[in-house]
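Checklist before submission:
- one chain only
- standard amino acids only
- sequence pasted in full

Submission:
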Amino acid sequence: MIEGHGDDLYRYDNIKMNFSSNIYAGTDLSELETFLSSRLDTIRSYPEPSAATLERMIAADCGISPDEVLVTSGAVDAIYLIAQAWRDAGTCHVIQPTFREYEDACRVFGYQEQEDGALCWLCNPNNPTGSVLPASEVMALAERHRLLVVDQSYEDYTMSPLLAPAQAVKCDNVILLHSMTKRYAVPGLRLGFITARAGIISLLREQYRPWAINALSLEAGKWLVERGETAIPDLNSYLAETQRLRRALDGIDRIGTMETMTNFFLCTIREATASELKEYLAREHGILIRDASNFTGLTPHHFRIATQSPDQNDALVAAIRFFLNKQQ
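Returned file contents:
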């Protein structure tokens, strides 16, 4: 799905507040930018074909073997690689509503969707709902499928306990996806990694293309892992602000919200569509939200919000109130 993701900021020229992207917006990346400026000479040579150095660093950080880590060009790259590697399985099950790329990748490689499908996809924490499945239920799900892929891209955006890489690598049929894009708030670098038992990683590595990660992304990844600081300095406060924003929106007549365990949540609007609200907010207030109507199982009335600063959150609430008042 090339079109239809969140953060379609490129379509607008007047956005001042972006609630469309789930990635934390308050990260200071100036030190990383300075570091990368000093490493521009790396573009003169080919990077490591398999990102082995970064994989060793990630493995040490996770407490697992380098044979149990595969670095990819973002989580989406990993999704398509996995769908390709297990294409002979023939059937899949995608737990909906969720990120569309699982469904799209399986369609590209000819899978048929069925509830007991061989390859099962779970987003946890889930995009777009913000729900989190406990680790015990994740393991129970693994027992019902040949292979379970758990996308934990938002693992650093929740306080809920999740399956750890050290647990996953002991399982014969569990793959974890991780997003350095989300962890460090660097979506332009396209960095992610897979953790799983060594046999699974070996199979994936055989089918993965060489030089998949460019030199500057590798330099950034090594710098970020070594530094050890994630994007969100105070997750507790950030999630508390998420709940404050959700309550404020839930208090507006004709707006409903869903409970969440992370920094984003689903909303519904009555007597108007999410698309109408989105275009109004962008045009009149310079505010961008995520029209969630293209998630399987959702409706034209669903939209997704990711928490920003308190002042911006208050501005969003006021703008939505103004839109609804105009509709009366």
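Reviewer check: The chain has two domains: 9-26+234-327, 30-227.
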